[in-house]
Design a protein that fits this description.
Blueprint lengths: L2 H7 L10 H16 L6 H31 L12 H33 L2 E3 L7 H15 L6 E3 L13 E7 L9 E6 L7 E4 L5 E5 H7 L10 E11 L13 H12 L4 E7 L4 H11 L6 E4 L9 H4 L26 H6 L3 E5 L5 H12 L3 E8 L7 H11 L3 E6 L7 H14 L2 E3 L6 E2 L3 E8 L2 E9 L11 E8 L2 H15 L11 E3 L3 H17 L5 E6 L5 H12 L3 E6 L16 E6 L4 E2 L3 E4 L6 E5 L5 H5 L1 E7 L3 H15 L5 E4 L5 E3 L11 H20 L9 H6 L1
Parallel strand pairs: 1-6, 8-9, 11-12, 12-13, 14-25, 17-22, 19-20, 20-21
Antiparallel strand pairs: 2-4, 3-4, 3-7, 5-6, 7-8, 10-17, 11-15, 15-16, 16-17, 18-25, 19-23, 21-26, 23-24, 24-25, 26-27
């Protein structure tokens, strides 16, 4: 029976595939479980609650927005899991309403009571002391009232344009004299003012939310008119839009237009305070033209993502988890040039356990080194004050040939990338805005250096962005080398994407959209064939998402051939593991811990001579068909063994991992008699600490006493 036949057989749940959107929601529920975990301190739990809210915001803007467009266009074709856009939207609504309830139950019943005990208190107006009330009133009069501008709105007339994700107050006012219908007004909560307003108190941090203050003094905005009720709400707009690259025009200008369009697009979600009056809810539903299923009554503060700043509040270490610091890499001593470090041998680093500094140093040293002729780098998401971009600008200003491919289509980073593209161009760098028709997601930097023996190319390949801030929060792999084949491939790659060439055959690399999927299919089939021949065959892979039907079908065929397959998929997984006759040899886990699992590592047993790869790409159609991606073999013994150990430890995690069940639900793994307690991220951190400490110990000076000359002779 073919895989396609098994799709129809529906075992279990209807098809051989899980729905992508519901799988993503399941991931966000795993993150929420961290917010609900009583063993974690309250500020760590608050951080995870904020993460689930931030994740949900992006999910509605992009994924729900895209499904809404399909529905509006009448495109009701089922996805690989057999669900039409309308069916998906119904299931999404049910699950996301549940998420909101659980988010706020955790916040109000568990997290905030613990924060209060620890000295962090959120107050409502009715809880303020007389002194705090006077303080709040002064803030309203001096800082808030001069800024806000109430806007009257009338049913049936054009509704004011509201910024997506911005909090607004709907104010219902008594009817005008001689009228029976209540009047309505909107008050936007100013984004330029702090939302968390500190209150005077004896100790700790006591605060009130800005929208609470505006609500309390709303009557001052409408003198002589009675305020009937006041409710906070927030509209989420569709952000699933892009440029028409087949049309003529400047990409930079087109991306600026996309940013404008997002502020004017249709609403896909309306969040409103749970205590809002039925009249307010009905008015906003009609005015904003949202379906009832897209209204989310929120039993607490809106925009939980904003509570990130509280999670990072200084001075409350007792309410946080133990701090972990990135560790110095013994093989990349700060006293050594990165060129010398890489020349001594390939370097594979596992961030954030091992410091990201060697990567930054490579670019910074290249900017200043007189022997460096050129630097070429792909930038997808960089920080606001990026030291990488600063180094590239400095290199260009010093006359080095700098080529920066800045992906302007990196979603939600477009504005920052536009600014950096302008700055680099002014500094004299050659700036490429990406590749027409594709997003360039590859992580690569090549430094071309003239040395006494000739020109040498130093290359960095990675699984994560060139962003020193996210490098402390995401787990990723860096691979640095000056081997000829890797350098030649890097040059060919840049020459291909910056010119008009087609992707060519590389010596070692594979690149999407043409090479990665065929190579993965070849590697999977090779394992299946070995198993059919009676040999040991195995596949281990770690990635963020698995949704590509062709690769999933290949994994099913390999499982049916007897290949033992272990997958560590952090987020979306559309593969059903453990289904008899289909995937009984496939096991899938997901790790959710303090760092975001982001590395892509693939291992194929290859008859006992394992092949190991790192990649910028997940196993998803968007990565393999619509992006420029790289997959890099790691062939040196030390690097390959390190990747193998990372995989082994991750699959052994019994503290922060979940097992995917055939029906799509996840079950948290627990230590048992066969599998002892193991937390992968803690193992990686302690190992990095031990290596760094051992290196320091080896470098410790040996003290030799100074003796008189005569004593030395006698000795």
């Amino acid at each position: 029976m073919s895989v396609h036949d098994k799709k129809k057989r529906g075992k279990p749940g209807g098809t051989a595939f899980l729905n992508r959107e519901l799988s993503w929601i399941a991931f966000n529920f795993r993150v929420l479980e961290q917010a609900e975990d009583a063993s974690l301190p309250p500020l760590e739990r608050l951080k995870f609650a904020a993460i689930t809210a931030s994740n949900a915001d992006e999910f509605f803007m992009v994924r729900v927005g895209g499904l809404k467009l399909l529905q509006r266009q009448g495109e009701e074709h089922p996805d690989p899991a057999g669900l039409t856009p309308t069916e998906q939207l119904a299931k999404i609504s049910a699950r996301m309403h549940e998420l909101v309830e659980r988010q706020h139950a955790a916040l109000s019943k568990e997290i905030e009571p613990l924060l209060r005990k620890g000295g962090i208190r959120r107050l409502r107006m009715e809880e303020l002391s007389p002194a705090q009330w006077r303080h709040v009133e002064a803030i309203f009069d001096d800082a808030v009232y001069p800024v806000i501008s109430p806007v009257a709105v009338t049913p049936g007339e054009e509704f004011p344009l509201l910024a997506g994700l911005a909090i607004t107050l709907h104010v219902r006012l008594e009817a005008a004299p001689g009228e029976t219908d209540a009047r309505h007004a909107l008050v936007a909560v100013p984004r330029g003012l702090p939302r968390f307003i500190a209150l005077p108190g004896e100790s700790g941090f006591t605060y009130i939310l800005l929208e609470e203050i505006i609500r309390a003094f709303a009557d001052r905005l409408f003198p002589g008119v009675k305020v009937l009720d006041c409710a906070a709400f927030r509209i989420t707009r569709n952000a699933d839009m892009g440029v028409r690259e087949d049309l003529a025009g400047d990409l930079l200008d087109q991306m600026r237009e996309v940013l404008t369009e997002r502020q004017e697009s249709d609403g896909v979600r309306l969040e409103i305070e749970k205590g809002a009056s039925p009249e307010a809810r009905a008015f906003l539903r009609e005015a904003l033209r949202v379906d009832e299923a897209d209204i989310y009554p929120v039993p607490g503060p809106l925009d939980l993502a904003a509570f990130f700043r509280l999670a990072n509040l200084s001075g409350y270490d007792a309410l946080k988890i133990e701090a972990w610091s990135p560790q110095a890499v013994p093989e990349a001593s700060a006293a050594d040039s990165m060129f010398e470090v890489i020349k001594r041998g390939n370097r594979l680093l596992f961030h954030p356990y091992e410091s990201y500094d060697p990567v930054l140093r490579l670019v910074q040293e290249a900017a200043d080194d007189p022997g460096v002729l050129a630097i070429k780098q792909v930038l997808y998401r960089v920080s606001d004050n990026s030291p990488v971009v600063a180094a590239l600008m400095r290199a260009a200003e010093r006359g080095k040939h700098v080529t920066a491919l800045i992906e302007l289509k990196a979603r939600f980073d477009e504005a920052r990338n536009i600014d950096w593209a302008d700055a680099l161009a002014r500094a004299g760098a050659q700036v490429i805005y990406g590749v027409k028709g594709y997003k360039t997601h590859a992580k690569i930097c090549v430094v071309v250096r003239r040395e006494p023996a000739g020109v040498v190319r130093y290359v960095h390949y990675g699984t994560g962005n060139y962003n020193e801030k996210s490098a402390r929060l995401y787990s990723d792999v860096s691979f640095m080398t000056c081997e000829e084949d890797y350098g030649a491939d890097a040059s060919v790659f840049f020459n291909t994407i910056t010119g008009y060439s087609q992707l060519v055959k590389f010596r070692k690399l594979e690149a999407a959209p043409l090479g990665i999927r065929p190579r993965l299919l070849e590697l999977i089939e090779a394992e299946a064939e070995r198993s059919r021949q009676g040999e040991t065959a195995a596949i281990e892979a770690k990635m963020n998402s698995l949704a590509d039907p062709e690769l999933i079908e290949a994994l099913y065929r390999a499982s049916q051939a007897g290949v033992k397959i272990r997958l560590n998929v952090r987020g979306i997984c559309c593969l059903r593991p453990g289904v008899k006759g289909l995937s009984e040899n496939i096991r899938v886990i997901s790790i959710v811990d303090r760092y975001l699992e982001h590395a892509r590592i693939f291992k194929f047993h290859n008859g006992g001579d394992p092949k190991l790869y790192i990649a910028s790409a997940d196993w998803m159609p968007r990565n393999l068909d619509r992006r420029i991606e790289l997959m890099i073999p790691v062939e040196d013994r030390e690097g390959a063994e390190k990747l193998s150990q990372i995989l082994k430890i991750c699959f052994g995690d019994t503290k922060q991992s979940w097992r995917l069940l055939p029906g799509g639900a996840y079950e948290r793994r627990r230590p048992d008699s066969r599998h002892g307690a193991l937390r992968a991220q803690a193992v990686f951190q302690r190992h990095a600490e031990a290596l760094a400490a051992a290196a320091v110990q080896q470098q410790a000076p040996v003290f030799e006493p100074q003796r008189p000359a005569e004593a030395k002779k006698k000795g």
